[in-house]
From TrEMBL:
Signal peptide location: 1-16
Catalyzed reactions per annotation: Hydrolysis of (1->3)-beta-D-glucosidic linkages in (1->3)-beta-D-glucans
Protein name: glucan endo-1,3-beta-D-glucosidase
One Gene Ontology molecular-function label: hydrolase activity
Organism, as annotated: Apiospora arundinis
């Protein structure tokens, strides 16, 4: 999802999901990542940002730093990649439909890692939202537990305990070690939890907005390297219970344009759309329907016969005005009633951003359905009935 004019942007280590555009490097040489690992970019928008939690947790280094440039290059080792042949996708599993869920990051706003009970608490709250039913899926950004090399993220046992389905994510930006650690954690999850885990998997995303960030001069990947990573994952799961899982990539509409080679290598496309951030276009709440479905429809046209999932969208209840877009609970309700409800009615797989963004302090902007505090004791900031 997006943040503010400081242009915070997603990038990640082997075990994380979102960082500032010019990150402070951690001990392992990868960018320090932030809460909720969310990013997004509406079609033709000018601002890119992470979960607002990152604004409180991750200081930005000097703009245009050499370190950032070096990491952006290192994250996309394209040598020889252009020679990769187009490989037909062959999967045994049909794409699921009518899925409803939320995006979940690896740690809290104070950078404390989420543990199994934390994930389970969130998953259970999502299943019991007033005026709704069926919100029982979780989109993850990484297979790796925060602050570890390649331990399995504790969202996995929490999903098993709560019977929450999983759209798995594998972070690939930030250097070649990222995908290796993600694959290692995925293999550990299959070995440790077996069919209790694999039966819950409804899809797997290799990367998240890497093409967007690469094109914006941030820490992303080239199309060639993305294809390499997709093939690495297919090779890694060959002969396992996940061999037939539908593999996709999540990005923005305009980042998929001209990337037919990438589209040929995936089974589904993940669309991230945020009218709130499209301040170069009419983006008031009155224009939100047109903005969202414009990008969604164009993504479907690029996908051809392949399904398009809505992997991120939402409207903030708190935040600075972006163009004509005003953040408040009334507009968030209108956006939910229009976009969430119409997607549900159409049976489109949907992972909303997000359940709660401000566990500690106040995120800016705040896209969370719930305000800060104990999820079990709070009521949503706006009505969720359709």
């Amino acid at each position: 999802m997006r943040f503010a004019a400081s242009v915070l942007a997603l990038a990640a280590s082997a075990n994380a999901a979102c960082v500032a555009k010019h990150p402070v490097n951690g001990a392992n040489g990868y960018p320090v990542v932030a809460h909720n690992a969310i990013a997004g970019h509406a079609s033709n928008s000018t601002i890119k940002a992470v979960s607002s939690s990152a604004s409180a947790a991750v200081p930005a280094a000097t703009s245009g730093s050499a370190t950032t440039s070096a990491k952006a290059s290192a994250s996309s080792p394209a040598s020889g990649a252009s020679k990769i042949a187009s490989v037909p996708v062959q999967n045994k599993l049909a794409a699921a439909s009518n899925i409803k869920g939320f995006n979940y990051g690896a740690f809290f706003m104070n950078q404390q890692a989420k543990l199994q009970n934390d994930f389970a608490y969130e998953f259970n709250r999502a299943k019991n939202l007033p005026g709704t039913n069926g919100w029982s899926s979780a989109r993850l950004y990484s297979m790796v537990q925060w602050n570890t090399a390649n331990d399995v993220i504790q969202a996995i046992p929490a999903a098993i305990d709560t019977q929450t389905t999983l759209l798995l994510g594998m972070w690939i930006s930030g250097g070649p070690q990222a995908i290796d650690n993600e694959i290692a954690a995925l293999k550990k999850a299959m070995s440790t939890y077996g069919s209790k885990f694999t039966d819950l998997v409804v899809g797997l995303s290799v990367g998240s907005e890497d093409l967007y960030r690469q094109g914006a001069g941030e820490i992303g990947t080239t199309p060639e390297y993305l294809i390499e990573c997709i093939q690495k994952v297919r090779d890694a799961i060959r002969g396992t219970a996940l061999e037939g899982v539908q593999i996709g990539h999540v990005d923005t509409y305009d980042s998929f344009v001209g990337q037919q080679a990438v589209i040929e290598h995936i089974d589904w496309l993940g669309f991230d759309g945020y009218p709130f951030w499209e301040k170069n276009n009419p983006n008031s709440i009155e224009n939100a329907h047109e903005r969202f479905y414009e990008g969604f429809s164009k993504t479907k046209a690029l996908a051809g016969s392949k399904p398009v999932y809505v992997t991120e969208t939402g409207w903030p209840v708190v935040g600075k005005q972006q163009g004509a877009a005003v953040a408040n609970a009334e507009n968030a309700r209108r956006y939910w009633k229009d976009i969430a409800c119409s997607l549900i009615e159409s049976g489109v797989n949907l992972w909303w951003y997000d359940l709660q963004e401000s566990q500690y302090g106040q995120a800016e902007p705040d896209f969370g359905i719930f305000p800060a505090g104990d999820l079990g004791q709070l009521q949503p900031s706006y009505e969720l009935t359709c």
